[in-house]
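This week, think about what follows.
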Amino acid sequence: MRFGLFGKGNDRKAESAEAAARIKAETRELLGLPEAAAIAVNEIICADPACPGTETVILVMNPGEKTRAFKAQVAMSDLTREALAEVLAPQQK
């Protein structure tokens, strides 16, 4: 028998994985990236009062180019396509 605390993180992990996959696909589309480009999406929570709190960090690693980093001041699940487009705007083709 499993206790109540075990397995509760699985729902959160699934939500995070879905949000990361969505953000990766939208980033690839908005920046016109080839399949060879690697995209990493992570959510960072900073407890320091000087930090903005929850932040989504997107790394774009395209062969032959420097790695590009983009930051959104929201959780992955709250990052809309429109907000992502604004974050990526300086790099969009």
In short: The mean pLDDT is 87. Helices lie at 8-31, 81-88. Residues 41 and 58 are 5 Å apart (CA to CA). Residues 8-91 form one domain.
